[in-house]
Structures are given as C-alpha cells and as structure tokens.
Amino acid sequence: MKITKRQLRRIIKEVTAADLDLYLDLGDGGDFPTLNDADSYRKWEVPYFTSAADFLDEVLSQLPGSTPDTIVYGEEMDLPDLPLSQVWDAVMEAGRRGMVSENFAAAASSSGYEGWEEDDFVDAIRDYSKELTGRRNTYGAFEDLEALTMIELQDYYEAMFDSPEAQAWQAKEAEDAEKLADEELGYEEEGHPLERSPLRQGMGRRQESIRRREKNIIENREDRLTLNLKLSPSGNDVELEVGESGETYNLGDYTDSQQGMGGLAGLQRDFEADHGMPMPPGTMVYDVDGVDIGDLPIEQMFQAVADMYAGF
User: Which of 85, 110, 161, 253 has the fewest CB atoms below 10 angstroms from its CB?
Assistant: First the structure.
C-alpha cells in the first residue's frame, strides 16, 4: 500500500504531538502558573497573556507538533489534565478562586472583582442592563448567562460598557456636566438675554467676562478640531490623527476587543486625557490617505473601520 505525502505528514504530526510532555507548575519563583515543555525546557507564564487565544497562538507558533488538543498535565497545580486550548481559562479561573498562590490570586483579581462569584456578575449584568435599556433581560437573560463561565461573565460585563446604550449614556453625562459647569458660572445656553447677564455687578461682572472668554476658548478649540484618517507608516494599520496636536491613535488596537483598549469609548477617553477636553460627538473625520472609507462623523467612522478590520 502506497502512502501519500499528505498521509505521511499527518503520521509525523501525530507522532510528534504524542511525544510532547507539557505540564503546569507555579514557575521558578513559585508565584505564577507556568506552562513547561519538559523536552525543550521552554516556559510560558500563563497570566502574562491577555486572552486564551493569545496564549494558544503563542504556544502553537513556538512548539512544533503541538495542537489545541495536546494534553497538558496539571497535577502540580492541583488541576486536572487539560487540552492546551483550555489551559488559560482554567488557570485564570483558579487564580480568581484563590486555588493557587496568594500572589497570583491577587494578580488575577486585580481587575477589581476580587471576591466576586458567578451570581455577582449575573446580578451586575442584569442591573446594568436595566439602567441602560430599562429591561434586565436585554443583556441579562438568565438562559444566556447560565451558559457562561466566570471569565466569560466578566468579559461580557465589561463589554457592556462599550455598548451603544452605554456610549449614548456617557455622551449624555458629558453634556449634563457641561451644562452644570455653565450654570455654576452663571451662564445659561437658553433663555432671555437678561437672564444670561452677569450674576453680580462691578468686580463680579469682570469675573463673569473672564469666565465666558475661557469658555469661548474651549469652544473655539472644538471648532478648530481636525481629525484625519490615515494609514500608519507601515501601511498595515489605520490611524486617527489629531491635526492640532499631531497625536495619533492606532484604530486597529481600539477596534480589537482582545487588546482591551475599550473601543470608541476608550478612544474618546484617551483623547480627553491627551487634550484636556472631550471629543465632541459628531466630529468629522477626513479620509486624507484614501482609505476608501470617506469623510464621516467619528462614530460612523469608527464602526466603518471596525467592519474593515473584521473583514481581514
């Protein structure tokens, strides 16, 4: 019987995979769960990866013969033997439950959810869904949440903060805060002109004039704001450039949920931190490099770029 080249490659791959000896321990310092290859002495510190996909891709790329189904022995960490594809999730959940070293448990809980159980996430998701949409089942249907693991529940909860409803709520909060600041300065956007006059005469009128000039400066900055859509120097990514400051933001990072940059809300947050003012809703972005997206408001542009990356 003649063996084809394809069959031979398959046999070699199966034999190589069978010879792999992978196991988990707490690393050289006894603090962080580490994947070890007993043959090559390679090590991968599991918690340093931001997701199961990142961890799996790294190991598969560096360890010839490994597959997502390659078995990893977990005895030294009091874990069951697991397929390689399940190692990251199992290790992180063990850390959150305090089943491994105290140092790692603290690191795994550093997201602010220390002591949370699955029911806590379910309650938080349903309460936030009610706050955003008026209905707990919009994002918090029990039949959907019951199928998720602890880590998946956390990821689901955090993703809600980038939902369209959350972004609209954040924009409304920013608008209300600006109105409140105007009121504290004795200035109303609407009403009779006499109602918008300075609150005090004499020195008070001079102070009011100064405050209005300061507000006009901020508004003028917003009017002059120029956002450009450009290709990165490498040509592999799309960037948002702020014309006035020269600051650039790699949109590939913000649209990739695995990067943890927070989507459009994260971009707006970083812009405000860098420029001392919020990015006005509806600000136009100009496609100066011919990315083939066209000139669009920031919200539509971001979604168009996200769709473009998703199609790659």
Answer: 110
